[in-house]
Design goal:
Structural class: mainly alpha
Strand order of the largest sheet: 2-5-6
Shape: elongated
Number of helices: 13
Distance between the termini: 74 Å
Low-confidence stretches: 193-207
Order of helices and strands: HHHHHHHHEEHEEEEHHHEH
Largest sheet: 3 strands, antiparallel
Helix content: 40-55%
Oligomer: single chain
Radius of gyration: 25 Å
């Protein structure tokens, strides 16, 4: 009797991975084509068919991905509501399947995906986008890389017209239309039920969706970490412009001048504010050596 030649391990891995990564449908949790894969590689037992055994792994795979995305973007879920968020999550993971060894990177394309598919968050698109920006910045702040901190001695001995500073890779600067920092703090502290009284909620029998009132003026936020904890620090418009200029490679002198170009306050007052900001930012450890391209 002839025996079937053994399949290379790589071929087996590709076949199983393709079956597991196929997005679940509403009526078909796993693609029917996976039945052929299951029949070829998986033995049935006295309780489950080959297809049913493979389906267990398919469900676990997708539950793990959807759960991880929900954990990282629980604020977005609170804004959209559970059902709408689940539809969004499935559409996103279908377009951007996991390609990293760590689920930490799972949401790295979500902000761009929301910008490209506004129908998935309508009519809460602007709020949803702000929440997603802050939540992805939180992921970066939590375990993003850190670089050596610039010393005060380096600041003191380098003239401002020659001094360039980099910002820590774990620091994200955001311009927002909504007070997402307040929203996220309250959500973390109290959960969705209590938060509904604080920021407003639209209720149905099956779910609740949270809403946040738009700020009267743009809100500037730094999302960063200190001693392994994530913080949301609001910035004056001038401070935000100064940091953005430094991030983009400007010297300290140029960044300070551009930050206050549109203000009418006295140079003395501006200098005092800059000194206070730099003192606080140094305590936070925000500054690192500028990238070589910017330093030249």
């Amino acid at each position: 009797m002839k025996t079937r030649p053994a399949q290379p391990l790589a071929a087996l891995q590709r076949a199983i991975a393709t079956a597991l990564q196929h997005p679940p449908g509403r009526n078909e949790p796993m693609a029917p084509a996976a039945a052929a894969v299951a029949a070829e590689f998986i033995k049935p037992n006295d309780r489950l068919t080959s297809f049913e055994r493979l389906q267990i792994y398919h469900q676990q795979y997708w539950w793990r991905l959807l759960g991880a995305l929900e954990e990282d973007f629980n604020g977005l879920r609170a804004v959209l509501g559970p059902k709408k968020f689940d539809r969004l999550a499935l559409a996103y993971l279908t377009a951007h399947p996991s390609t990293s060894w760590t689920l930490r990177d799972l949401g790295q394309h979500l902000v761009a995906f929301l910008e490209q598919h506004p129908a998935l968050t309508h009519p809460h698109g602007a709020l949803a986008l702000d929440v997603a920006r802050v939540e992805w910045a939180r992921v970066i702040a939590f375990d993003g890389p850190g670089r050596p901190v610039v010393s005060t001695a380096h600041l003191a001995r380098t003239p401002p017209d020659r001094l360039r500073l980099g910002l820590q890779p774990s620091l994200t600067l955001l311009a927002l239309a909504y007070p997402i920092d307040d929203f996220m703090r309250t959500l973390k502290r109290t959960g969705i039920a209590a938060l509904s009284n604080a920021v407003g909620a639209a209720h149905t029998q099956r779910q609740s969706r949270l809403s946040v009132r738009r700020s009267r003026r743009p809100l500037h936020l730094a999302v960063h970490r200190v001693d392994h904890s994530v913080y949301y620090t609001r910035l004056d418009p001038e401070a935000w412009r100064l940091l953005v200029a430094l991030r983009d490679g400007a010297t300290v002198e140029t960044a300070c001048a551009s930050a206050f170009a549109a203000t009418e306050e006295s140079p003395e007052h501006s200098a005092a504010r800059i000194q206070e900001w730099f003192s606080r930012w140094m305590q936070f450890g925000w500054f690192c050596p500028a990238p070589r391209a910017a330093a030249r």
